[in-house]
Amino acid sequence: MLILGSCHCGNISFRLGWDPDPAEIPARVCDCTFCVKHGGTWTSNPKGALEVAIADPSLVSRYAFGTRTATFHVCAKCGVVPVATSELEGRTYAVVSVKAFTNVDPSRIRPAPASFEAEDVDARLARRKRNWIGNVRFTQAG
User: Exposure check for the chain: N or C terminus, fewer CB within 10 A?
Assistant: First the structure.
């Protein structure tokens, strides 16, 4: 399955290859203060391949807080956060926002609460390495 997504204005878009075609897509409704404020609901497939295309890099703001081990890619034009990344051992790992999907029937998405506040940094990074998308490429759109 090829999942397409973007911010509201289309400045940040993504293509996520998810194989095999999932009957349902698990989504984590994060309870950190940042995600609560913008409705962050994330998914990833560690076997997937993600291409993130940026039309105008000057309109992308990057935000990190807390442990500063994840970077949220915020469209400075429309305010949407379609992707978050983490750099681990020279490799980029990512999750995508299910709210940014443009071609997935919402009935396939299975949201569940997620809390990572009790994790120490090592456990958090190990979880990301196991569960986040490890095949990530950023390109210039257009």
Answer: C
